[in-house]
What we know:
Elements: H1 2-8, H2 10-17, H3 21-46, H4 51-69, H5 77-95, H6 98-103, H7 108-119, H8 121-140, H9 150-163, H10 186-194, H11 197-231, H12 245-272, H13 279-301, H14 306-320, H15 324-334, H16 340-356, H17 359-372, H18 378-389, H19 391-422, E1 430-435, E2 438-443, H20 444-448
Helix pairs in contact: 1-8, 1-11, 3-5, 3-16, 3-17, 4-5, 4-9, 7-12, 7-15, 8-12, 11-13, 11-14, 11-15, 11-16, 11-18, 11-19, 12-13, 12-14, 13-14, 13-19, 17-18
Amino acid sequence: MDRFTVAGVLPDIEEYFEIGDSSSGLLQTVFICSYMVLAPIFGYLGDRYNRKWIMSSGILFWSVITLLSSFVPKKFFWALLLTRGLVGIGEASYSTIAPTVIADLFVGDLRSRMLSIFYFAIPVGSGLGYIVGSKVTDLTDDWHWALRVTPGLGLVAVVLLVFIVPEPPRGAVERRSKRALVNTSWLTDVKELSKNPSFVLSSLGFTSVAFVTGTLALWAPAYLFRAQVVQGTMRPCTKGTCNSLDSLLFGIITCVTGFLGVGAGVEISKRYRKVNPRADPLVCASGLLGSAPFLYLALATAEASTIATYVFIFIGELLLSLNWAIVADILLYVVIPTRRSTAEAFQIMMSHLLGDASSPYLIGVISDAIRRSRPDSYLAEFRSLEYALMICCFVGAMGGAAFLATAVFIERDRRKAELYTQELVEEDEPIVVPQAGRSLKLPVTSVLI
């Protein structure tokens, strides 16, 4: 919600600081860069120390910095960039750790369902960011107040974390033994993760999801606004607060498609898994490959019909939302418990480095470059952003191919992680094997061999 409050008031920020598309794209890029750089650090800490206190500290810091960012003077755009970068500390502290806490509280289909509830936060929170940003700006006639809503909610989250959330033993619900799993070195963790094809390929697929959603999150409201200016149904934003209707509508679409898509993805995958153990990556691939043509149609029809554009965006975002909880579930069952926070961290770093850290700025730079080659006009502003956004369709198709490749390895890597967690850690404990009317005690390793 905090991240996309800025996107919801982006035209106002551009006018206030007198910046172009490339500088606007930097607002998202600096945040994501901070987030992805810090994620491995929090991943390391999350696999070894008390996760609840790490998350609480990070969110408290984030809340304070977000509040401070709303007081940046007009001449200090660099200070807004700095504070948005520091906000990444808060998100890195819990995004790498929270899914592992859920994994240590639930197993099987129940874990998938709980992850879907957790990952509602991404699309639904994003949509609420647009809605709150646009409506608070309308009510106060000042976009700065839009950034002062989420810090209070962050403090509520800290209180709930401290007093409600438990700190479960790592991997306890998956082990047959009461013996604790032993951490390996960080370099060993990284080496083993790099040799896990399901983790690597699904992370590449998720990178495509991050690229497309990160681009749409920042630029879709601005693109829809420019389309209506070209149509003549909206006044250009030249002074005062900009029209926030598109941010509001896009926020509502993001909330609804997120709520429907995340839940539908988990349920479809759960039912399909009964007949095909490779269901998870195949559902993810279908979501990405299916969303690409609808996103293209949304861009192609924007100049002629705003309603058609919204319909195609709705379908495209719904298909993209199928992935969120499933990708997290894949990571949790192909990676052993003592490496999950590190795996989450590296998936975050990869997906953001190649995804939504670079995509908003990249789209802005391409848009500015195309605009410079044309006579300056509202049509040129619209068309340059339209051509730049076309990249998302190709990236989505590439992500679908990565998930199809994941399906080749998913069964083997899942079984390997299950054997390690359930059996190999118990190699000192004998298993009783009946033999000719008597019991023979053998070590687990012998039984597995």
